[in-house]
Specification:
This protein is of the alpha+beta class. It contains five helices and eight strands, in the order ββαααβββαβαββ.
Length: 186
């Protein structure tokens, strides 16, 4: 299944016109289960490089089977640049009768070298468009480490509101981190 959205990512502020990213073509799409290794590699990179941003750990997800990754991939959108995956976002539609009106966003990540180019915005826009297409969905929720200031700012820009703070929600390398709970009504 392919959702294809292509546009030229924006150039970072104050960068010279010859910046390598000034003409970066970015494609947002879903991948079929045959590309589960692309998903796995990007997700594990995210967990290693930004461990305080996720509730799961590299050690936990490294042991997932091929079948586990294939089950997860239908809920993921990927940003491709230079022919390789550079970002992802996962959104899950609740299936339970009492909560099927809510979508959860997880695993939002853009490789460090590709940040501040508009790629995260493209991923979030596409995920929101997919969510809005489901008429029964009225709310999207997520949680974010408040120290991830760029992520909090991006979510706020898209209309997410902080509705609570879970104190000491994550324990990473002996340090506790809070999680902001944010939600957006459609």
């Amino acid at each position: 299944m392919k959702i294809k959205k292509t546009r030229t990512a924006r150039r970072e502020r104050n960068s010279p016109p010859q910046d390598v990213f000034s003409h970066l073509e970015v494609e947002i799409k879903k991948l079929d289960e045959d590309h589960w290794q692309d998903y796995r590699n990007l997700r594990l990179e995210a967990l290693q490089g930004a461990s305080v941003a996720f509730g799961s750990s590299y050690e936990e997800e490294m042991t997932l089977s091929e079948a586990d990754w294939k089950k997860r991939i239908p809920n993921a959108l990927f940003a491709f640049a230079d022919g390789k995956p550079v970002g992802l976002i996962v959104f899950v539609f609740n299936r339970r009768a009492k909560t099927r009106h809510i979508v959860d966003i997880f695993s939002f990540y853009v490789k460090t070298a590709y940040r501040r180019k508009g790629i995260g915005q493209m991923l979030l826009e596409t995920a929101l468009a997919e969510t809005k297409a489901q008429k029964h969905v009225i709310k999207i929720r997520l949680s974010v480490n408040p120290e991830q200031k760029d992520a909090v700012r991006l979510y706020s820009k898209f209309g997410f509101k902080t509705v609570g703070c879970l104190e000491k929600e994550l324990l990473v390398d002996g340090r506790f981190y809070d999680e902001l709970v944010m939600e957006k009504y459609l």
